[in-house]
Specification:
- With 111 residues, the chain is an all-alpha fold.
- The chain has 3 helices and no strands.
- It has a domain of 71 residues.
- Helix 1 packs across helix 2.
- Helix content is 59%, strand content 0%.
Length: 111
């Protein structure tokens, strides 16, 4: 067997790093509040769709079961699920995408 070519070798492509690190700035209070408002509106839409789906799939028995669970528990589960879904897949929520904010590590240099 020839040593010139190994079909199991990883592809050889040059790694190109950005010339300069991306400049970041601290988001203003208004921008962060806007992010919160957009995320809360999306959460309310999710809660509405969840309630409609329960009503359509299970009828009055499903709604009775949903009403037997405290609102704080239902809301907390939906809110945590909302953030876990978006942060887990894209590492950004819809509010962060719209307002262009990014959560960074405290050790990153801010401009």
């Amino acid at each position: 067997m020839s040593d010139d070519w190994n079909k199991f070798a990883p592809p050889s492509s040059p790694l190109e790093l950005p010339a300069q690190p991306r400049e970041r700035e601290i988001a203003s209070k208004g921008r962060r509040f806007g992010t919160l408002v957009v995320d809360y509106i999306c959460y309310l839409a999710l809660a509405f769709v969840f309630g409609v789906l329960i009503a359509l799939l299970f009828g009055s028995r499903g709604l009775a079961a949903l009403h037997s669970v405290p609102d704080l528990v239902t809301g907390s589960v939906l809110y945590i699920g909302y953030y876990a879904f978006f942060e887990g897949i894209w590492a950004r929520t819809p509010g962060k995408l719209i307002f262009g904010t990014v959560a960074v590590d405290a050790t990153e240099v801010l401009v």
